User: Fold these one by one.
Assistant:
Number 1:
Amino acid sequence: MSSTQLGSHKVREAHVFLRSRISSGEWAIGQLIPKEPELMDLIGVGRSTVREAVRSLTTLGMLEPVPGVGTFVRARTPVSSLLTEFLAEQDLEEVLIYRRSLEIEAAQTAAVKRSDDQLAALRASYERSLLFDENPDSESSDLSGCERCNDILRPDSFHRLIVEASGSKLLLDLYTGVMTVLGRAVSSGVVFLGISADTMHLDHGALLKAIEERDVRDAAHSMALHADRDLGVHADMLDLAPNTERAESLIEAGYDPQGVASE
């Protein structure tokens, strides 16, 4: 066997090793994978083989190296990467509608299936968001404006935690692909946050309450309302308000966290 063939075989073995740890959830989305020296010991290969395997999974969208920090898990399967490429070619308003559908399904399913640990993570994310908005310069806050800026793929973001609490790995993969596209659109200024901090906290509070009380109806309605007024699309240099007829109809029907909070 030639050295080239041996090298290719070792890369395939390393690729399978890394991918199995990610697909199984042993290395969770948003988690740093072990450093190169540790991977070399775990797999029994050299540095160049590890780097080639990591590069192949980065191409699939499953890993993301961050210089000076390490390599993060970004997707459980290549589904999110392929979906990202597909959605990047679609109209952003259509992507927002797709995101809304996924999040409503996630919210109502999370109300049924969430664990106590997942509820605690949701509450912690909500409280970090409140802390950041009350004192954005605080060194004790590690939120970095994740819900108000462009880091909407942050592993501990409120929305992502709801999707995880649904218990559906496929839903999480699809959601990751959608939010990757929207994250890029926010970064480029095409998509904007169309909700105030106060309204966001009221919406998130309503979602947290519904999921905590396992109220499927309120979880779905809370997410429908929030998603409809959360993100908007810039067009012809004018803001297209994210508040849609669906959101207005929910408010007219009496479902409005702001009205509930003021009672």
Note: Confidence is low (pLDDT under 50) at residues 1-6, 138-150, 236-240.
Number 2:
Amino acid sequence: MDVLTENFSLYGKGLLGTVELTGYASLLALGLGIVMAAFRVAPVGSLRVFGTVWVTVLRNTPLTLLFFAVLLGLPRFGLVLPFTTFAVLALGCYTSAFICEAVRSGINTVPVGQGEAARSLGLTFDQTLGSVVMPQAFRSVIPPIGSTLIALAKNSAIAGSFSVTELLGTYKTLNELGYSIVWSFVWIAVGYLIVTLTISAVFNVLEARWGVPR
């Protein structure tokens, strides 16, 4: 317990950094993922191509490589932002590809007749997607989106290698102070467990309320 009690503020700062990184990246991933899913099913060919390229490139790019590209590449083009912001961009964009495919699979579960009925009433594509299709698709994609955001929380550990304050990075300071590396990692694991179980609990509540019975 000494590792935790004597370095509680350090662990707290790291945990807060992980929570903030996870929260902001999740919002970005959800927003981009839903937009890209809409692109993937849009009647405009150029939008479908853009959505397909976005998903294909990001899903097949190692996250560490994406971190290097964003945190080290963008400043070379004059875009200088805090490293935490770059980490949010990398995590959010990467995860958005998986959110997109989860949402698109939900859209595909909605009967085609629903969209045809909406169009017969004079609704535009945007209105049909937002008012008819998405609300039904959302109910079936709650579990996979929850799992994806849990993976995002764990992937945030990579940010510590790029001078971003987060939970895993605390082991460097603890190691320099001479604490047991084993117990340092035990409490780091407990921190990640708290974050992931919290996300899981939130999505369990959402699924119980709005999910499709299976």
Note: The CA atoms of residues 4 and 187 lie 7 Å apart.
